[in-house]
Amino acid sequence: MSPLAIDLFCGLGGWTEGLIEQGYYVVGFDIEQHIYGDARYPAQLVLQDVLTLHGKQFKDAALIVASPPCQEFSYMAMPWSKAKEKQRLIEASPDEQKRLTALFDACFRIQAEAIEAAGHHIPLIVENVRGAQKWVGRSRFNYGSFHLWGDVPALMPIGSIKKLNGGDTHAWERTGKHCGNWSTLCMRKTFDSSAGFDRKAASAMIAKIPLPLSTYIARHFYLI
Fold first, then answer.
1. Residue 156: which domain range?
2. pLDDT class of 188 with cuts at 50, 70, 90
């Protein structure tokens, strides 16, 4: 049987694509279904708030991956007066800090509950942006703008993305090279105006884990 992987905050399935390629059976969880033209989640999808999940459901999982929403972390890292004011307000309120990190913290709660139910360790990889480090601690590795926490392998790829991806840089060019302009646009629209379909589609594509990274992690933990 294929090893089971759980993808929390799965979005368009950047983690899932790499997991499927390496032979996992994947179940994704998200609060909404993301469909933008031909782009959609590529595996079994459960529409459920991650905060309502209990890790004992995942005692048979071989791997848990997660990409909690990063918009607030990214926004507060921007050099805008409104962004800095938002940061000051959160810094002054323990309740707001708890709210800010609630989804990130839920990933590790779910892992702990899954481990307790399984009776053995179940690895977890959480991805987010550099700006999250101020609130959740230093990341263990970054792949361009994609920062990782949790059970990050001691040996991670060193060198160019082109080498890791066998010469195909399309995924990185889509999510990394153009990320600065698109992410700035999306952050402004997210917090300064209504959220439209195009903005949500662009945000979902920016947040999608590059295939070279997801396949590397998937390969490392396959039947470990």
1. 4-221
2. very low
